[in-house]
Amino acid sequence: MQTETDLLRVVLYCRGNTETEHKLLETVRNVVPGDRISHYQDMAGISQTLATPGSKILVIVIQDSGELDAFVRIREQLQDRAIILILPDDGPEIMHRSLALYPKYISNSRTQFTDVGLVLEKIIQHRKYGGE
């Protein structure tokens, strides 16, 4: 019998930045088997996967404020999902606006993403052993 964590998917959204995308995919693959990772580069793809049933952890790379605004507009679809958000900078304005998505963790795109890997592991453990 499969448990919720057996069916858990990590949904990665990263548009157009191949270096960031490559580093982040490598980090996520170190935590989650590749067959449980869905990778999208456009809003249509991520909206479609959010509409399907199943437990998902979202790792979202925001490139600019327009992209953040697009996610804020679909925040109802993101409710009750664990979100790891990666911002282009740590300026107070974009940081404040990103809180509308209720992320579990916020990182910066200039990191090596080891922090993201650790947080992802912790979220999965939490779900596996009695969390949401």
Structure, explained:
This protein is of the alpha/beta class and 132 residues long. It has helices spanning 4-7, 18-29, 43-50, 65-73, 75-78, 92-98, 114-128; strands at 9-13, 37-40, 56-61, 82-87, 105-108. Helix 6 (92-98) links the parallel strand 4 (82-87) and strand 5 (105-108). Mean pLDDT is 88; it is low at 1-5.
In short:
The protein is α/β, with parallel strands linked by helices.
Largest beta sheet: strand ordering: 2-1-3-4-5
What's the pLDDT, averaged over the residues?
88
Estimate the strand proportion.
15-25%
- C-alpha geometry: globular
Distance between the termini: 19 Å
Assembly state (oligomeric): single chain
Order of helices and strands: HEHEHEHHEHEH
The helix content, as a percent range, equals 40-55%
Structural class of the helices, strands and pairings? alpha/beta
Number of helices: 7
Q: Kindly state the number of beta strands.
A: 5
Largest sheet at a glance? 5 strands, parallel
Layout of helices and strands, plus pairs?
Layout: H1 4-7, E1 9-13, H2 18-29, E2 37-40, H3 43-50, E3 56-61, H4 65-73, H5 75-78, E4 82-87, H6 92-98, E5 105-108, H7 114-128
Parallel strand pairs: 1-2, 1-3, 3-4, 4-5
